[in-house]
Amino acid sequence: xxxxxxxxxxxxxxxxxxxxxxxxxxxxxxxxxxxxxxxxxxxxxxxxxxxxxxxxxxxxxxxxxxxxxxxxxxxxxxxxxxxxxxxxxxxxxxxxxxxxxxxxxxxxxxxxxxxxxxxxxxxxxxxxxxxxxxxxxxxxxxxxxxxxxxxxxxxxxxxxxxxxxxxxxxxxxxxxxxxxxxxxxxxxxxxxxxxxxxxxxxxxxxxxxxxxxxxxxxxxxxxxxxxxxxxxxxxxxxxxxxxxxxxxxxxxxxxxxxxxxxxxxxxxxxxxxxxxxxxxxxxxxxxxxxxxxxxxxxxxxxxxxxxxxxxxxxxxxxxxxxxxxxxx
Length: 328
Ligand SMILES: Nc1nc2c(c(=O)[nH]1)N[C@H]1C(S)=C(S)[C@@H](COP(=O)(O)O)O[C@H]1N2
Ligand SMILES: [Mo]
Known about the structure:
Strand content: 35-45%
CATH topology of the largest domain: Sulfite Oxidase, Chain A, domain 2
Helix content: under 10%
Number of helices: 3
Distance between the termini: 63 Å
Low-confidence stretches: none
Bound molecules: ligand MTE, molybdenum atom
Mean pLDDT: 97
CATH class of the largest domain: Alpha Beta
Radius of gyration: 21 Å
């Protein structure tokens, strides 16, 4: 199937990310080259002249915007961590696909206002323009947001990342960005928005991206507290009694208030210092360390301002560990 002004660059599921994993993430703002890239059905290249966004459903003024209409609207920047929830087929596997970037775009709320969204609307559905198959399912990549989040100031129809226009692989010319929520919600190649009074019924909001919990399924929306050790990495050459530091990133939808580090495989924990957050950015933590020679098992764990933390294992935000060898 071909649609006017669009073609698939690469078909099928794809993941790209730095070979060193989280140990590559040394800078506050993640350069695009180090930022993971994910698609379920493939990457689509969309001709800017053909791109348009249709807004319909529970709205008083169904609207269609072309790219220059959107570009003429007020835009804002917002810094945010960007994290993939991992495979929807293995939701308890920690993949630690993460970065911290600056998005720029038009607040979704402005576009919804322009379409005169109805008071009856309680969910906003958005769909990507690509097509193809994922895990035996062949349907558009459609996601939903509860209206309170859809209207929040940080939710953008993004045109730029880190000061540059979105590439086709990044979801350009326009993608949704939902800071604080898992990447799956940030619909790339967005082409339509529907205001509705119920959740969307497609595979990407029912079969995939719903976690089983004792009290029923829970949508993969808000990002749970998580932290990773960036340095040292398992490959680093460390020397006994030479002072170094253990540092990394901690993040979550809610601000992180404490990070603890263990240098003895979880036997004891020490409080790291935790840096500030900007918008919905990640936060840097650091602990000075003068290691003895031998093998060391390092771990980190964080909690947010509500006291929510990280499970030791079997969760996408499970505690991260690094094993290092210290020489004499
Ligand atoms: N249209 C569309 N949007 C999508 C996806 C997709 O497959 N199709 N994948 C989602 C997932 S699972 C993630 S983690 C992010 C990845 O965004 P990135 O490739 O810019 O890092 O896009 C989300 N938006
Ligand atoms: Mo993802």
